[in-house]
Prior knowledge:
This protein has 283 residues and is of the alpha/beta class. Helix content is 48%, strand content 13%. It has an eight-stranded parallel barrel with strand order 1-2-3-4-5-6-7-8, surrounded by eight helices. The protein is globular and about 55 Å long.
Amino acid sequence: MTVTAQLRKHLASGTSLVAPGAYDGLSSRLVELAGFQAVYASGGAIARSTALPDIGVLSFSEVLERIEKIVDATTLPVIADADTGFGGGPNVERTVRAFERIGVAALHLEDQVFPKRCGHLNDKTLIAPSEMCTKIRIARQALQDPDFVLIARTDAIAVEGFEAALDRAEAYIEAGADMIFVEAPETLAQIEAIAHRLPGLKLMNMFHGGKTPMVPVETLAALGYQLVIIPSDLQRAAIHAMQQTLAEIMRSGDSAAMDDQLTRFTEREAIVRTQRYLALEKG
């Protein structure tokens, strides 16, 4: 079964598919080993992994190269953050074709002006709904696999208000989006209203410390959200762990006191499948 067919099957299961955010091959592999059924290639986490903020600084080629590594490291469907498509209509066509070519199973495009900002930052600017609808139609025409999931994201709540965000979402569905992603709802009532008003597949961005309140996955499934992404929690956990380890090395000269918090050498090598690659040399 193709990864796109796998994803479609999960989305039709009646539950909410949880996709933790990865930002490199290792984090992608760990998501699969933990037992999840999909990986989210987080544009924000990819940007921050280069010590840059999520404000559209990385180029299309830089993002594509990283997402390819995320895809290669897992057998799971990868849902990719394609930002604004990295420009206008021609850029969108190129982005969609490239993402499909490297094996992505789904991607989302957003209606911010390029370069964009993280969805939970302030002072965002949007393109006109008609321009976003054109981007969606271009993306749909560019796709070859009918199972590929095209997701349209709107950041309009923080810019134009909640009703305008719903109006945009409806227009994006009509333009050809398979799934709708209304970014950064601020109350449970808004989360419920999105689910009740918008038809078809829906995505919820859910992470600790953002503008959106935490809602149990079971509740989101009951409301009709088929996909839940958790973009940055893995990276935030990794940052904290590295800070603690560095502090201990600075204090004592080594990390021996943190032995119980460090992955064993053998486990690390198993995760990256060292023995498999060494066996290839033996024929």
